[in-house]
Amino acid sequence: MAMIQRPKGTADMLPAQAYKWHTIEKLASETAEQYGFREIRVPAFEETGLFLRSVGETTDVVQKEMYTVTATGDSEFTLRPEGTAGVMRAVIENGLLNEAFPQKVYYLINCFRHENVQKGRLREFHQFGCEMVGSADAKADADVISMAKSFMDRIGLRDIELNINSIGCPTCRAKYQQALRDYFGARRDELCDTCKERLEKNPMRLLDCKSPICKEIGKNAPLIIDYLCDECSDHFEKLKKYLGLMGIDFVVNPKIVRGLDYYTRTVFEFISKDIGAQGTVCGGGRYDGLIEELSGKAVPALGFAMGIERLILTMEAQNCDFMEEKTCDLYIASMGDEAVDKSMELAMKLRDEGFFVEYDLMGRGIKPQMKYAGKIGAKFVLVIGSSELETGCAKLKNMASGEQADIKLDDSFVDNFSNALMAEMFKDIDGEMAALLGKE
Ligand code: HAM
């Protein structure tokens, strides 16, 4: 029988990997909350029109990468290729624009893009993102960037380069678009078909075309930074000043334009050199026109999103520490029906107190039960048979040291087990303390 396999460009996250994801998710929400961001959850699919109006009709994401679905008699929907559009739709629809500014939200989501699959480029991937609504001040840009940086520091990443640029506002962009039309127009015949079309509609999109020829031609294209109006220049200068004040290193990279249409003014990327060609672990910027485009109300906003798979790849490449996986505190091995009953009773008591406990569910003999306890990395094993039930006392085995101690199975059991576990967990620290005190 042919086995059905997972779709190309998707991944199964198995239990053995879960602790890596938990590390990211826990530190992401902790960092975001410290900066005043609160979690938002929105649907994984939206009306297709939302992405056309926000991400932009001439972007690769919309033209080539959307998973669009229809159900009989229903509208056309698209699996979200990114988070900002849906989150802004929710902010507007739920009246958050009437609340105190800045509104700050973060999210941990999956996204879908029909891309050419390669290392760090998937068709279903995950993002940690944040959005701040209401502030036009460059301090907000610096604050959002500092949050991204602080999170990456916390997960232990090193050598991540922050690239910043300004892509101006509609005023300064009009002149720039013309400069691009003149430049690329001179070599129109060499451009890919998509870019020929983009030349009229949205020439800035030529700058992030993935076709090798367009990329080559684009190398000497005019730079937006040379066309900024006074206000946009001033905003960018302030951002650089604030980043300096905050001690955040950056390089100005005038080639960053980002692949989504909604950006205005500040754009930025954090890039790792340790994971190959797809090294952008975080991308973001300001999108002061998007809320107006979607709601008619002019409200500035900005944010970023990081690819969780790329973060994990970088952490692995840099040997960063992940949160430790939880392991079983106690495995109760039992022989005979009455002993099984007792093991269930003891397990429930310990679980009620927060301990991680397992017992035999397979009807195995003692030897295979011990083997299983070893495999799951149980810290202690308790063995109960008929004689233990008779005497009310059993052996508690410390699996790391091999030591065994008697433990009563009466009401003192939970406290005594807790003491044994604490002694095991803190033995290294106790040893270090003793060594330190000895030296003094
Ligand atoms: P983006 O640059 O398209 O921006 O994606 C953000 C991050 O998601 C990228 O830097 C990368 O780490 C990850 N990513 C993107 N595509 C893939 C893929 N195919 N496979 C694996 N990882 C990927 C946005 O999505 C904007 N919504 C960010 C933003 C939020 N701007 C303002 N607010």
From TrEMBL:
Its EC number is 6.1.1.21. InterPro entries: aa-tRNA-synth_II (IPR006195), aa-tRNA-synth_II/BPL/LPL (IPR045864), Anticodon-bd (IPR004154), Anticodon-bd_dom_sf (IPR036621), His-tRNA-ligase (IPR015807), HisRS-like_core (IPR041715), HisRS/HisZ (IPR004516), HisRS_anticodon (IPR033656). One of its GO terms (biological process) is histidyl-tRNA aminoacylation. Gene3D superfamilies: Anticodon-binding domain (3.40.50.800), Bira Bifunctional Protein, Domain 2 (3.30.930.10). L-histidine binds at E82, G83, T84, R113, Q127, E131, R258, Y262, Y263. It is found in: Cytoplasm. SUPFAM superfamilies: Class II aaRS ABD-related, Class II aaRS and biotin synthetases. Keywords: Aminoacyl-tRNA synthetase, ATP-binding, Cytoplasm, Ligase, Nucleotide-binding, Protein biosynthesis. GO terms for cellular component: cytoplasm. The keyword Cytoplasm applies. One of its GO terms (molecular function) is transferase activity. CDD domains: HisRS-like_core, HisRS_anticodon. The keyword Transcription regulation does not apply. It catalyses: tRNA(His) + L-histidine + ATP = L-histidyl-tRNA(His) + AMP + diphosphate + H(+). Residues 24-315 form the Aminoacyl-transfer RNA synthetases class-II family profile domain. Pfam families: HGTP_anticodon (PF03129), tRNA-synt_His (PF13393). Homodimer. Belongs to the class-II aminoacyl-tRNA synthetase family. This is Histidine--tRNA ligase. It comes from Ruminococcus albus. The lineage of its organism: Bacteria, Bacillati, Bacillota, Clostridia, Eubacteriales.
